[in-house]
Design a protein that fits this description.
252 residues, alpha+beta, 3 domains, seven-stranded antiparallel beta sheet, 9 helices, 43% helix
Length: 252
């Protein structure tokens, strides 16, 4: 299939669902692994889908809406039928959805959104499950693997993180740029099949717009992770784990 055909197919793809089992989608995903331009487009598309999903999940149904619909349906003296009320509620919800979608899909979307999208995309990788490319507790082996696969390998680890158990690494993609994913284990009990619960993502700083000023860590909650982000020596570092601000600070 052509690149444009693959994009049209992947527009229907929802990361983290059974969509990947569809033969057409599976074929397009396989093609993206060997097509850097298509891979970059897919990364950006998946990031938008992830952020849009988060925004939609934040939309709450107005208090009393259900009760209002039921009571107005039952009140025979009302001139407005229940059907009209339901239609009105549906239109209101659709307008809310369009408002949320417009923030991310309109052509004039501000470049300032790039950092937030990057953070959500990487947090999504950690939370939705992933397969490490290399399972090892050897830091030299991790750096060698990342360098061989053209991902950032000359990163600097904070002293506490250097003492944290290393479990392996993977190479992720951000808009056609390689991202180093270094995986650690905090020592807390993990679910069966889970190898790590602390993740460091390293990417060239130029690949992400509006990176933090200075070299200090900026702590923020991203999705279900507590994260710390900093820019240093031309690279952008994103460290994430489950817990609270004090949890992440002990690794900085």
């Amino acid at each position: 299939m052509t690149r444009d055909e693959a994009k049209n197919i992947l527009l229907l793809y929802r990361p983290g669902t059974a969509d990947a089992e569809d033969p057409q989608i599976a074929g397009a995903l396989a093609q993206a692994k060997f097509d850097p331009e298509l891979a970059g487009w897919l990364t950006a598309h998946s990031a938008r889908q992830f952020v849009i999903g988060e925004k939609l999940r934040q939309i709450t149904v107005p208090d009393g809406l259900k009760e209002q619909i039921i009571s107005e349906q039952a009140a025979s003296e009302k001139n407005i039928s229940a059907r009209h009320i339901i239609q009105f509620a549906a239109v209101a919800v659709i307008l809310l959805l369009f408002g949320a979608l417009a923030v991310f899909w309109l052509p004039h979307r501000a470049p300032e959104d790039t950092l937030a999208i990057y953070q959500n995309q990487m947090a999504g990788v950690a939370l939705r499950g992933y397969a490490m490319d290399l399972l090892t507790n050897d830091p030299a082996a991790v750096r060698a693997y990342l360098a061989k696969n053209h991902a950032p390998a000359d990163f600097i680890l904070p002293a506490p993180l250097q003492q944290t158990a290393l479990t392996g690494c993977a190479v992720e993609n951000w808009q056609g740029v390689k991202v180093a994913m270094i995986c650690f284990r905090t020592g807390k009990p993990l679910a069966p099949g889970v190898a790590s619960d602390l993740w460091l993502f390293v990417v060239d700083r130029a690949a992400v717009k509006r990176t933090p000023a200075g070299t200090g860590w900026q702590i923020a909650r991203v999705n279900r992770l507590i994260t710390a982000t900093r820019a240093q020596d031309g690279k952008l570092y994103l460290l994430g784990t489950s817990g609270e601000e004090a949890t992440i600070k002990q690794y900085l």
